[in-house]
Amino acid sequence: MKQVVGMVVSNKMQKSVVVAVDRLFHHKVFNRYVKRTSKFMAHDENNLCNIGDRVRLDSSRPLSKRKHWVVAEILKKARIYVPPSAPVSQNVSSSSVSPTATS
């Protein structure tokens, strides 16, 4: 059974996620390592994955036309960013604003 590790990039489907898997390979002409990304659709039975989670996928029988991976484990949960609440704006009195003189 094949296993890959990747990052969840989409979870907008029911019981499915899209996982981006990075890999490095050696380019023979340029003699450098090149990074390539593949996207796999994976089955997430309980809808536990969120965008940014690091997950391990196991191969499985074909579950649909494009889905033949299953989320085996969530390795690291994504940190959820909560922006600070905006301060309540105070009414600005007209006297504090000085008009510009035009001559």
From TrEMBL:
Keyword tags: Ribonucleoprotein, Ribosomal protein, RNA-binding, rRNA-binding
One Gene Ontology term, aspect cellular component = ribosome
Which GO annotations describe the biological process of this protein? translation
The record's listing under InterPro entries reads:
NA-bd_OB-fold, Ribosomal_uS17, Ribosomal_uS17_bact/chlr
Gene3D superfamilies attached here? Nucleic acid-binding proteins (2.40.50.140)
Molecular function in Gene Ontology:
rRNA binding; structural constituent of ribosome
Can the keyword Transcription regulation be found in this entry's annotation? no
Q: Does the keyword Ligase apply?
A: no
Quote the PANTHER family the UniProt record gives. 40S RIBOSOMAL PROTEIN S11 FAMILY MEMBER (PTHR10744), SMALL RIBOSOMAL SUBUNIT PROTEIN US17M (PTHR10744:SF1)
State the similarity comment.
Belongs to the universal ribosomal protein uS17 family.
Q: What does this protein do?
A: One of the primary rRNA binding proteins, it binds specifically to the 5'-end of 16S ribosomal RNA.
Q: What is this protein called?
A: Small ribosomal subunit protein uS17c
What is the source species?
Cicer arietinum
- Print the organism lineage: Eukaryota, Viridiplantae, Streptophyta, Embryophyta, Tracheophyta
In the UniProt record, the gene name given for this protein reads: LOC101510466
